[in-house]
Amino acid sequence: MEDTIVVAVEDVSDHVWLQAADVIVGRHRTRRAGRRWISTIRRRYPGCVVAVTRGRRGRWCLVGWPGHTAVMRGEHMDVAVAVEIGCVAYYVWTTRGVRP
Question: Is the pLDDT confidence value at 58 over 60?
């Protein structure tokens, strides 16, 4: 049986949905702001395992999960791509035997 991954998008999803989310997606101007946001999100929503932020122009995504942050570069990183990246990161994290 597969687990359902709960995904929320900052500034779109309700607060209750953000509280329940395994993956939260945001958008930031700079990678530095994105890194700060990832730290803040994971403290604010302890159930969140993966936080993904994408650049305003869609040329990068930062993925943060416990103990790691990675940068992904591409041409068109929209919210749908950021959600996919977050779900893959969550899947990899949980298949390693780690549960939130």
Answer: yes
Query: In terms of residues, how long is the chain?
Result: 100
Residue 90: domain span: 29-74+84-100
Rounded Cα distance between 72 and 19, Å, is 26
Q: Is residue 20 part of a domain?
A: no
Q: Report d(CA 84, CA 1) in Å as an integer.
A: 20
- Residue 35 resides in a domain: yes
List, for residues 34-53, the tens digit of each pLDDT value: 999 999 998 999 889 999 99
Q: What angle do CA 75, 24, 28 make, to 5 degrees?
A: 50
d(CA 68, CA 53): 14
Q: Indicate left, alpha or beta for 10 from its phi (over 0: left) and psi (-120 to 50: alpha).
A: beta
pTM listed for this prediction: 0.88
